[in-house]
Structure formats: structure tokens, C-alpha cells
Design a protein that fits this description.
Length: 440
């Protein structure tokens, strides 16, 4: 759509929290938005009780819906009630892996009806949402993307990558080092009563890049609800306890799946661990299950310790690698003050930002592992700075998974002195690869 006037003639933007009415039932506008989102993501139409549950999950997550509504819908079209563009956000903590976190404006449910695409709905919704995010005090926005080329133009950078891996049983065991602790098979219901959340909280605290889960994710990963709204009949579960303790420090849920070529596979649904020992033991357990050829995991981290534990490292195949969480810095000084640093140092950083929020030249001083960023100028003084980059690439660097040295080699980060990206890499270094197991 050529201009803003055309957009406003055709669409009206409405923003509201998902809500129940005075009768305790979801409001019609909440249900219509839910249906539009489901259509956008090719989901089957849920039963009435599932729609109600989903709205209540979104209420629990404090989700706000931004919808683009067609002002003059065609008779009989869903546009009469559904928004043609959907967009939501909610608060979600992002862990720095040292027990601290930053609150993100977590963006989700981005869909535009095929009949209305490429008329600027996404651009308008994103612009309005980020403006609102800044007004509400968010220093950073986050999302997970269905395609890799949509969000950079809005200042988001891919900050974490993850892998789909397949481990072949025949070559995997024994592990090179002994595992410890006790693995027990449990029912998925055993995990529901606090056990899973307690383990997740410990995982989240130690894992830089981990994000708090949506309310609606829990029943799915624990198998208490399948996609059809009924309890999943195929989900199995096990827990790990340390040899000297009773508290569960890891759990896994999985299902059996047919593999190409008549093979049988275990597909890990959820694998959460508060210790390295729990992670290793649960993998060993899965690889020891008979009547099965491979174990598949679609959330593997890039520094997966299993590779170094396997009896034959060729048991480990990477099937696919993809971006996971994308980050968008809105308030640069606030984000850098929140993050812990591995090494002290100071650097001048010039940032471009088409939407303006993080544009300027900043001095980052890190002392005792804590940083202070001071704005030197509203201008992006690339020539006078140690490093110059776009806000999207700053988002990529932020967790420490993407190296400034790689970005310099890729030509998207400029540094006259090669020592500057090396110093920033050391400053941003993390004890283990940034990793998250939360999709939203
Ligand atoms: C992706 C989607 C949301 C885009 O919505 P839209 O209203 O057509 O996008 P806009 O017209 O506002 O386009 C905004 C910009 O993004 C670009 N863009 C839009 N969709 C894109 C895509 N799939 N890939 C790459 N670029 C895309 C446009 O070219 C435009 O660029 P510009 O403003 O720099 O010129 C829409 O096609 C959709 O609903 N797809 C299916 C669901 C989906 O993938 N959702 C994303 C979930 S993370």
C-alpha cells in the first residue's frame, strides 16, 4: 500500500488485552483474534473449550493483541469479525545465565491474511508495537521467527541458533565418562505438580538466552494436552536425581516415531536439566532404550556436550541448524547495564538504527564485570568509533553466541583496529553457548 493515508482508509488498528467478559467467558474480540491467529498458522479449528483455555492462557501471560481490521469487509468474509493482521506481545524474562535477567517485550502471533499481505500491515503493526514497548519501559524486544528474512529490517538480529540432531544408538554407548545419579521412569502427570517448573527455573537461571515459558506451552511439552486438546497418549517421561539427593534435577519427555526406512526413533519433546550430570544421564538413558534405532532432538545447543561424551562421535548427525531467538535493542544503555561481562574494557560503539531507538555513538565502560554505556552523540560517528554496526547486529551479538570477529569478517561490523572486535568478543564471552528451549 503506497501511503499511510491509503492504509488508514482501508484498516483500523485496535489494541486490547486478551480478556474475559463480565460473564467469565472470553470476549468476542479475543475469540475472533484467536481464530485469525489460528488461520494464519494453519492450525485446525479448536473446540469451544480449547478456545476458552487458550484465551485464559494468554490472559495469564498478560498478552496484548494488536489487530488490523478491514474497515469495509466483503459480505460474508471473516473480515467482518476477525482482524486481517494479528500481532501480540507480552512480558518475558530473558536470562543472562548468572541468576539475573532482563524483561523483554516478547512479540508473537504475527500473521497477515493472504488477501491483505504486502499492503504494509506488518510494518505498521511492528512500528506501533515497538513505540508502545518503549513507552512501557521495555529496553529490548524479542521474537522467534517462521522465516529468516522478515525481521532484520525492523532492527532484530538472530542471537541464538539451534540444531536438529539425530544420535544413532548403535554407535553411541558406552559414553567415554561415567554418568552419575539415578534415572527413573515416571508418568507425565508426576511432572505437572511443580516438578517440571522447579527444574525449568533452575535451567533458566543458569542458561544465558533462556526465556520464561508461555503458560500454554507447559501442557504440550508435558503431554497432558495434545494438539487436539486431548491428553497426548504417546508421551513418556523420566526424571534424574543426583546420587546424593532426592530433588529432581532433570527430566525428559519423549515419544516414539516411525523413521524413514522402517527404523524406529525416540523424539525428545522436552529435555530440561539443572546440572550437566542430569543432561548426560538422561541422554544415556534414552540411548539405552531397546527396540529403537535413533534419538532425535530438535533443540540441541551448538556446544552440545553429548558430542564429546559419545563412544563414537560419528553417532551424532546434525540434520538442520536454524535461528532461534531474535533480539531488538530499544534502550542500549539499559540493556548493556543489565548484562554481565566476562572481561573488563572500554570501547566506543557507533550504531545505526532505521527506527531510531538505539542510533548514536556510545562509550561502553566495563569494570568489575558490569557495564555502563554513555551516549556521546545522537549521530552515528562510524569513523570516530572503535566499532560501527547496525542495531540488528548488536542484537545478534548481545548474548555472546555470535562473535564480533565473525561479523567483521562478514562485513556487517566495521573496526579499523582488529583488536576492537577481539576485545568485545572476550567481554561478551559466556560460560556455555547461549541456549533456550522456549518458543513463543
Ligand atoms: C510475513 C507477513 C507477516 C508479512 O506481512 P505483510 O503485511 O505482508 O508485510 P508488509 O507489507 O508490512 O511488509 C513489510 C516489509 O517486510 C517485507 N516482507 C514481508 N513479508 C516478507 C517475507 N515473508 N519475507 C521477506 N520479506 C518480507 C516487505 O517486503 C516489506 O519490506 P519493506 O517495508 O522494507 O519494503 C505475512 O506474509 C504472513 O502473515 N505470513 C505468514 C505467517 C508468518 O510467517 N508470520 C510470521 C511469524 S514469525
Amino acid at each position: 500500500m503506497a501511503n499511510s493515508k491509503d492504509f488508514d482508509t482501508r484498516y483500523e488498528l485496535r489494541e486490547f488485552p486478551f480478556a474475559n467478559g463480565a460473564d467469565g467467558e472470553p470476549t468476542p474480540e479475543s475469540l475472533a483474534a484467536l481464530d485469525a491467529i489460528g488461520f494464519g498458522f494453519h492450525e485446525s479449528t479448536p473446540k469451544p473449550e480449547a478456545r476458552k483455555r487458550k484465551v485464559n492462557e494468554l490472559i495469564a501471560d498478560e498478552a496484548v493483541l494488536l489487530g488490523a481490521y478491514v474497515r469495509k469487509p466483503q459480505p460474508g468474509s471473516v473480515d467482518e469479525t476477525w482482524p486481517a493482521g494479528t500481532f501480540s506481545w507480552f512480558p518475558k524474562a530473558l536470562s543472562w545465565g548468572d541468576g539475573t535477567s532482563i524483561n523483554t517485550q516478547a512479540i508473537s502471533d504475527v500473521t497477515v491474511r493472504p488477501t491483505e499481505r504486502r499492503r504494509g500491515i506488518l510494518r505498521r503493526m511492528m512500528t506501533q508495537a515497538l513505540e508502545r514497548g518503549v513507552a512501557d519501559g521495555y529496553a529490548i524486544a524479542a521474537l522467534t521467527a517462521s522465516e529468516g528474512t522478515i525481521y532484520r529490517r525492523f532492527g532484530f538480529g538472530s542471537a541464538i541458533r539451534e540444531r536438529n540432531v539425530v544420535v544413532k544408538r548403535a554407535k553411541a554407548l558406552p559414553f567415554l565418562a561415567p554418568t552419575s545419579g539415578i534415572v527413573s521412569v515416571v508418568t507425565p502427570e508426576y511432572l505437572v505438580d511443580g516438578v517440571a517448573r522447579q527444574v525449568f527455573d533452575r535451567f533458566d537461571e543458569r542458561s544465558i538466552g533462556s526465556m520464561v515459558r508461555n503458560t500454554g506451552s507447559w501442557p504440550l511439552v508435558l503431554g497432558t494436552l495434545g494438539r487436539d486438546g486431548e491428553p497426548a497418549k504417546d508421551t513418556r517421561a523420566a526424571v534424574h536425581r543426583p546420587a546424593d539427593g532426592e530433588e529432581v534435577d532433570g527430566y525428559v519427555t519423549w515419544r516414539m516415531v516411525e523413521q524413514p526406512g522402517g527404523q524406529t526413533g525416540i523424539e525428545i519433546i522436552d529435555l530440561v536439566y539443572a546440572t550437566d550430570s542430569a543432561y548426560l544421564s538422561l541422554w544415556e538413558f534414552l540411548l539405552s532404550i531397546d527396540l529403537n534405532d535413533v534419538v532425535k532432538y530438535n533443540r540441541a545447543r551448538l556446544d552440545d556436550p553429548i558430542v564429546s561424551a559419545l563412544g563414537d562421535n560419528r553417532a551424532y548427525d546434525i540434520e538442520h541448524e536454524e535461528d532461534h531467538v531474535w533480539l531488538r535493542v530499544l534502550d542500549l544503555p539499559a540493556v548493556l547495564a543489565s548484562r554481565p561481562f566476562a572481561v573488563d574494557g572500554s570501547l566506543t560503539i557507533a550504531v545505526t538504527d532505521a527506527l531510531g531507538y538505539a542510533a548514536g555513538t556510545f562509550r561502553l565502560e566495563v569494570t568489575g564485570g558490569r557495564g555502563t554505556a554513555t551516549k556521546l552523540s545522537d549521530e552515528t560517528d562510524a569513523a570516530g568509533a572503535d566499532l560501527a554496526l547496525d542495531v540488528a547486529d548488536l542484537g545478534s551479538l548481545l548474548l555472546g553466541a555470535v562473535s564480533p570477529v565473525s561479523l567483521a569478517a562478514a562485513g556487517v561490523l566495521q573496526a579499523a583496529d582488529p583488536a576492537a572486535p577481539l576485545l568485545l568478543r572476550s567481554m561478551l564471552q559466556t560460560p556455555r553457548a547461549p541456549h533456550g528451549i522456549t518458543f513463543f
